[in-house]
Amino acid sequence: ILNLGNSDKTSFDEHISEYNKTAWDLAERFEDIYVSLIKAIRTLAYPKHPSTIQSERSGYTIYVPNSIPASVPIFIMRPLRGELEHATQNIVNRIRAAGDKYVYWLDTSGWLDPNSSLDTETTNQDFYLDDSVTPPRWRLTERGNQRTAIFLHMHVCRYLARDGEKCPFLPSEVYEGKVFDPAERDFERYVEGEKEKRLRALFWEEDEKVAN
User: Fold this and answer.
1) What is the mean pLDDT of residues 26-48?
2) CA-to-CA distance for 141 and 122, rounded, in angstroms?
3) Whether 106 contacts 73, CB under 8 Å
4) Is 31 within 8 Å of 4 (Cβ atoms)?
5) Average pLDDT of the segment spanning 86-115
6) How many CB atoms lie within 10 A of CB 28?
7) pLDDT of amino acid 17
8) What is the mean pLDDT of residues 67-83?
9) Could you say which of 31, 78, 110, 148 has the lowest number of CB atoms within 10 Å?
10) pLDDT of residue 180
11) In this structure, are strands 103-106 and 74-77 parallel, antiparallel, or unpaired?
12) Contact (CB, 8 A) for 37 and 111
């Protein structure tokens, strides 16, 4: 689970004149670096497909092409106050378009109430402005941390609990998709090919009847 963007947006706003770049340029740079980070995580943290690891532990091996990305889900959180929200969406779209279908955007809108203006931590708000640092930063209160933890638990419970059936919602297949099976892929291609042949034959027969 990655939650980046809050500090970056603060830095962009504070030092944009020093960077000598537009806010658009900085957001694009943020996307590029984030994409590189995710690809590095895939390469270094999950060098093998989970099916391969599990089979090796069981004492046998299976073949999984290296071109198939690890199916361990990576969640990219929308920053809790919405900073660089669209950039985080674009990052997920870029990664998925490149072939990694197991990266997901976790929409956090509605989790917390961002309308906090007090500079002290209280029990009736989700954020407080910490002015002990420069520039001041929004931080989660105890209530904000608890609410965030509850929502996150709903999404990752099935990956942490011993009995996933007791988790509140979101079955694992929502994120994991199907385990890659070369034979199943070939069969699906065969079925699609047969469908195309039959449709072509159907339309050609209709065209011939009209011509006659």
Assistant:
1) 86
2) 7
3) no
4) no
5) 89
6) 14
7) 83
8) 79
9) 110
10) 44
11) parallel
12) no
Measured CA to CA in angstroms, residue 16 lies from 19, 22, 30, 32, 142 at distances of: 5, 7, 13, 18, 32
**Region of residue 39 (phi > 0: left; psi between -120 and 50: alpha; otherwise: beta):** alpha
131 pLDDT tier (thresholds 50, 70, 90): confident
Query: How far apart are the two ends of the chain, measured CA to CA in Å?
Result: 64
Q: Are strands 127-130 and 103-106 parallel, antiparallel or unpaired?
A: unpaired
Query: Quick one: tokens of 140?
Result: 């989660």
User: Which pLDDT tens digit goes with each residue over 4-15?
Assistant: 988 888 888 888
Residue 29, both tokens: 């740079």
Tokens for 208? 């011939």
Encode the chain in three state secondary structure. Answer: CECCCHHHHHHHHHHHHHHCCCHHHHHHHHHHHHHHHHHHHHHHHCCCCHHHHHHHHCCCCCCCCCCCCCCCCEEEECCCCCCCHHHHHHHHHHHHHCCCCCEEEECCCCCCCCCCCCCCCCCCCCEEEECCCCCCEEEECHHHHHHHHHHHHHHHHHHHCCCHHHCCCCCCHHHHCCCCCHHHHHHHHHHHHHHHHHHHHHHHHHHHHHHC
Rounded mean pLDDT, 177-197: 61
CB 28 within 8 A of CB 100: no
